[in-house]
Write a structure and sequence with these properties.
This is protein acetyllysine N-acetyltransferase. The chain is of the alpha/beta class. Helix content is about 40%, strand content about 20%. The protein has 13 helices and eleven strands. A six-stranded parallel sheet has the order 5-4-1-9-10-11, with helices on both faces. A three-stranded antiparallel sheet has the order 7-6-8, covered by helices on one side. Bound molecules: adenosine-5-diphosphoribose.
Length: about 280
């Protein structure tokens, strides 16, 4: 990893006035104790069968067995609710403070930790939704409702009480509410996930940091394609090789960093601080 070359590319990106974007996945929150999706803890057990997120996190499964899907989400929601942002999240807040409108945070994480850390709502794009919200599973309206109060923390396998089931009904039509997340059998859209806005950001990105994501979903892949089409720099920070690795290796403006996201982000903050005085941009 050539840090000198990256330092120069950061300078050039800042001077360009284009976006410096951060495309984030579950790896960023791993150090806050939230299991990644494709790591060993991502599965869900119903009876004696293990389901992968790709099977349980679907609209199809929600229609077949909304209670089981909610049990999985309430278990994940409990972990997220009790988790605290780590140094990587806090570094992203510092970076936003340095870059202001040049900063864009495109996150696949629904865990709420960017908000807890202090990133602004305006510059954070929740492309896979946000567990702090629910909406009607029947789409009677497109309203987002805050996650209902009065649902207790859930461990794996905990049941949902009758009282809690009532809280998980749409206040408008009485059908099941659903978590405000993009499921595996659904497609991105502008209304809920800012799909077109995020594509436009990609086209205006001078430098992209990919952080803790395996690149298994559509939008991150397209984002990287678009940034490279416009010749932007791309830095891939992941513990493991992933779907981007081969491409980054062959890309002349690509960087591979195989280290924990928090450690690398702290280093990037330090580099940026040398170049920018806070409040002067
Ligand atoms: N620092 C950096 N990278 C890490 C760390 C860490 N501390 N821990 C894990 N990683 C990396 C892994 O090497 C892996 O590349 O994070 C990545 C996690 O990949 P996934 O589990 O596939 O998570 P993600 O890419 O966010 O999943 C994308 O798929 O399941 C859906 O909608 C869900 O948003 C999710 C999407």
């Amino acid at each position: 990893m050539d840090w000198g070359r990256l330092e120069n590319d950061i300078k050039v990106a800042i001077a360009s006035k284009q976006k410096i974007s951060f495309l984030v996945g579950a790896g960023l929150s791993a150090e806050s104790g939230i299991p990644t999706f494709r790591g060993k803890d991502g599965f869900w057990k119903v009876g004696s069968k293990n389901y992968q997120p790709e099977e349980i996190g679907t609209y199809r499964m929600f229609c077949l067995n909304s209670e089981e899907v909610w049990k999985w989400f309430l278990f994940r929601k409990t972990i997220c609710k009790n988790a605290q942002p780590n140094e990587g999240h806090l570094a992203l807040v510092e970076i936003e403070g340095l870059l202001n409108d040049q900063f864009a945070l495109i996150t696949q994480n629904v865990d709420g930790l960017h908000k807890k850390a202090g990133n602004s709502l305006e510059r954070t794009y929740y492309v896979h939704g946000d567990l702090d919200f629910v909406r009607c599973g029947d789409e009677c309206t497109s309203n987002l409702y805050p996650f209902p109060q009065g649902i207790s923390d859930k461990k794996r396998g905990d049941r949902i009480t009758e009282q809690e089931q009532k809280l998980l009904k749409c206040p408008n039509c009485g059908e099941d509410l659903r978590p405000h997340v993009l499921w595996f059998d659904e497609t991105y859209n502008e209304k809920y996930y800012k799909f077109q806005t995020v594509r436009d950001i990609a086209d205006n990105t001078a430098l992209l940091f990919i952080i803790g994501t395996s690149g298994a979903t559509y939008l991150p892949t397209e984002f990287v394609d678009r940034v490279s089409f416009f010749n932007g720099g791309i830095v891939d920070i992941n513990l493991d090789d992933n779907n981007f690795t081969e491409f980054i290796k062959s890309y002349d403006k690509g960087y591979l960093v195989r280290d924990s996201s928090s450690q690398v982000l702290l280093k990037i903050v330090e580099l940026m601080k040398k170049m920018i005085t806070p409040g002067k941009k």
